[in-house]
Design goal:
The chain is of the alpha/beta class and 498 residues long. The chain is 39% helix and 21% strand. The protein has 16 helices and 23 strands. Helix 13 links the parallel strand 16 and strand 17. The chain binds nicotinamide-adenine-dinucleotide. The site of nicotinamide-adenine-dinucleotide has 26 residues, from helix 8.
């Protein structure tokens, strides 16, 4: 069986911990590889390599660093099909969706290609007599990223794309569930001309994460995953003096006003709720129709739409979505459906019995629909992260606005309407970080930034865009005077600009 090893200092590093994790093909349910799980020693080897490489990399001029990014982009485009198939075979999402995963990461690399311009500092001439003040952004040193299973290409690229472009070296600890593509990305970064040690991949579980959070040479940690772990990473990392951004879970609502184009809404909702088997942090697992008529019509059309969905293996070009990532995750989703019934929601469509002929051991689950979901229910409060859509009915705009605003998560939200004034007011008042107006999955483009509110993000800096550049750099401000004559003034008084 294939073993997936760490990638450190430009080459494969065989693990010494003796611990391994199983990597499944969710289509077949079979273990298709095993991944090494790092101990402190392997993580330390990566940090030492990264620290040594960072000095020369930071001294490389930004234009040359940008050229590596341009070449990396070209290589990913060259290998797009193979990477997407590799990704699908471990994650389970359909190949077209895997290409989207890679493409959205690549857009951050495109942003990073402009780093010479973005890194330009600020300058004030004549801030005082003969005094000029300028500021510049410098890299932090060794940075690390810990990523979830659901976007094994995009999220690593959000992080290392910016971090490396600004002159840091990087250690990526990808999800142990689908670790092959992250290693491939690091290999391609070397092929693109990044020096060995600039991008390293260390596989592992909590042990590796803890080693990252406590290692004295790691300056900043970016995390994306579930909220409890995000919170733990934020607290532990900051307690060890690190800069930390930690993105967590989500429960995004789609608000449907009575004037919305329901045909379009149903198509959009179906893709946003069931696409990638609901395993997206920007999925729309909750729909809030406003008014009884909107709710009844939406439900009827959604049931019809769900009957057209094809669940298939990830290489099936006609499939709308594939299996979920693991047997445990499928069991967890089925359990939430059971709890939903127990707590009194109406299960309109039940996807639990779905099985795909010839792939009975695969981790498939059909789409499910609940109506009559209420605010206090556990299945409403918590993230299910599967192909389950919940209808939570509202009578008024205000009631609909309050639902996502008061929810513990605040990642994304969407409103569907033809009324510009209502949409504008909603976007302004809703207590959520990313808003879509007739856009079901409002993942911001790479030159804006990605980040939720409340329990969807800990720390105060978003991913990628200019916020990402700020996260991975520190500002130095220089106040300079070139004396022409004798020194004047009182050296014991705080300098003021006369
Ligand atoms: P997860 O929290 O289980 O794992 C994320 C990372 O943390 C992995 O690298 C994993 O190895 C590590 N980890 C797991 N258990 C740990 C522990 N006890 N201590 C320390 N580290 C640990 O998340 P997942 O299941 O891989 O991904 C799905 C979750 O990620 C969902 O909650 C989803 O909403 C969230 N997510 C959020 C965003 C966002 O930007 N807000 C984006 C994508 C996914």
């Amino acid at each position: 069986m294939r073993t997936i090893s760490h990638f450190v200092n430009g080459q494969t590093l065989e693990g010494t911990s003796g611990r391994f994790g199983d990597v499944f093909n969710p289509n077949t349910g079979e273990v298709h590889a095993r991944v090494q799980l790092a101990s402190d020693a392997e993580l330390d080897a990566a940090v030492q390599a990264a620290a040594a490489a960072q000095i020369g990399w930071a001294a490389t001029n930004p234009q040359r660093r940008a050229r590596v990014m341009f070449e990396f982009k070209r290589l990913i485009e060259r290998d797009m099909n193979a990477l997407a198939e590799m990704l699908s075979s471990e994650h389970g999402k359909v190949v077209a969706d895997s290409k989207g995963d890679i493409q959205r990461g690549l857009e951050v690399i495109e942003f990073a290609c402009g780093i010479p311009h973005i890194l330009k500092g600020e300058y004030t001439e004549g801030a005082g007599p003969g005094i000029d003040v300028y500021s510049m952004r410098q890299p932090l040193g060794v940075c690390a990223g810990i990523t979830p299973f659901n976007f094994p290409a995009m999220i690593p690229m959000w992080m290392f794309g910016i971090s490396i472009a600004v002159g840091n070296s990087f250690i990526l600890k990808p999800s142990e569930k689908d670790p092959t593509v992250p290693v491939k990305l690091a290999e391609l970064m070397m092929e693109a001309g990044a020096p060995a040690g600039v991008l390293n991949v260390v596989h592992g579980d909590k042990t590796a994460v803890d080693a990252i959070l406590t290692h004295p040479l790691i300056r900043a940690v970016s995390f994306v995953g579930s909220s409890d772990i995000a919170h733990y990473v934020y607290q532990t990392g900051t307690a060890h003096g690190k800069r930390v951004q930690a993105m967590g879970g989500a429960k995004n609502h789609g608000i449907v006003l009575p004037d919305a184009d329901l045909d379009q809404v149903v198509k959009d909702l179906s893709g946003a709720a069931f696409g990638s088997a609901g395993e997206r942090c920007m999925a729309l697992p909750v729909v809030v129709p406003v008014g009884k008529k909107t709710g009844d019509e939406l439900r009827e059309r959604m049931v019809a739409e769900m009957q057209t969905l094809k669940v298939g293996i990830s290489t099936d070009l006609d499939a709308h979505y594939g299996p979920v990532v693991s047997a445990q995750h499928r069991a967890k989703i089925a359990d939430y459906i059971r709890i939903g019934v127990e707590e009194g929601a109406e299960l309109v469509v039940d996807g639990r019995d779905f099985a795909l002929q010839g792939f009975e051991k695969g981790f498939f689950i059909g789409p499910s629909l609940f109506d009559g979901v209420k605010k206090g229910m556990k299945t409403y409060q918590e993230e299910i992260f599967g192909p389950v859509l919940q209808i939570v009915r509202a009578e008024t705009f205000e009631e609909a606005l309050a639902l996502p605003s008061e929810h513990q998560y605040g990642n994304g939200v969407a409103i569907f309407t033809r009324n510009g004034k209502a949409a504008r007011e909603f976007a302004s008042r809703v207590n959520v970080g990313m808003v879509g107006i007739n856009v079901p999955i409002p993942v911001p483009v790479a030159y804006h930034t990605f980040g939720g509110w409340k329990r969807s993000a800990f720390g105060d800096t978003n991913q990628h865009g200019v916020e990402g550049v700020k996260f991975y750099t520190k500002v130095k401000t220089i106040t300079a005077r070139w004396p022409e004559g004798d020194h004047e003034g009182d050296a014991f008084v705080i300098p003021t600009m006369k």
